[in-house]
Write a structure and sequence with these properties.
alpha/beta; Rossmann fold; binds 5-O-phosphono-beta-D-ribofuranosylamine; GART; purine biosynthesis; seven-stranded mixed beta sheet; 9 strands; two-stranded antiparallel ribbon
């Protein structure tokens, strides 16, 4: 399948998916990487892997509607069959989300439905949680509220700070996101109503 990845920053999850494709874990091809910032390091990762890139800057558009229309055009120019949000720090309009419904994945650094939004690691520590993690989910109009496909848990130890927890969570992100992309590309993943499920076994 043709995969388009949307990023805003470092792109370590993008890298995990690039590597997943290269290893044959993911039966798909990243046809384009789109960033909303020219400075996103993930663009360098894409170029190093020979993947086409495009910057669609939110600063060039008057409102979210116009921005999302431009984003949609860019995504469609890469013939996307799957859109992967990997640290893409923009809220998407309902029209955009509906247009790509069932083909839009996101990774969020918490055990959803806990800690939607930002600063998840710090919030989990502040709440005294002893575990934390990450979730891959289908994107719906509800921010960080779409059906969860796969989660990974990590412990929070006494003395941890947001950065040690973030690092632990990131390692898991790099394992679970390529796996979910694999399932999608194998046509084994479905979103129906507000549920997600997998056909077949884990690998
Ligand atoms: C990840 O923590 C992801 O959960 C969140 O944004 C971060 C992106 O990291 N949505 P990277 O750019 O993939 O390194």
């Amino acid at each position: 399948k043709a995969i388009v990845v949307l990023i805003s920053g470092n792109g370590s999850n993008l890298q995990a998916i690039i590597d997943g494709c290269a290893k044959g874990l993911i039966p798909g091809r990243i046809t384009g990487v789109i960033a909303n910032k020219a400075s996103a390091f993930g663009l360098q990762r894409a170029k190093a892997a020979g993947i086409a890139t495009q910057v669609v800057s939110h600063k060039d558009y008057a409102d979210r509607q116009c921005y999302d229309a431009a984003l949609q055009t860019a995504i469609e120019s890469f013939d996307a069959e799957l859109i992967v949000l990997a640290g893409f720090m923009r809220i998407l309009t309902p029209g955009f989300v509906q247009h790509f419904s069932g083909k839009l994945l996101n990774i969020h650094p918490s055990l959803l439905p806990k800690y939607q939004g930002l600063d998840t690691h710090q919030r989990a520590i502040a709440a005294g949680d002893t575990e934390h993690g990450c979730s891959v989910h289908f994107v719906t109009e509800q921010l960080d509220g779409g059906p969860v496909i796969l989660q990974a848990k990590v412990p929070i130890f006494p003395g941890d700070d947001a950065s040690t927890v973030a690092e632990r969570v990131h390692e898991q992100e790099h394992l679970i996101y390529p796996l979910v992309v694999r399932w999608f590309c194998q046509n084994r993943l479905q979103q129906r109503m507000n549920e997600a499920w997998l056909d077949g076994n884990l690998l």
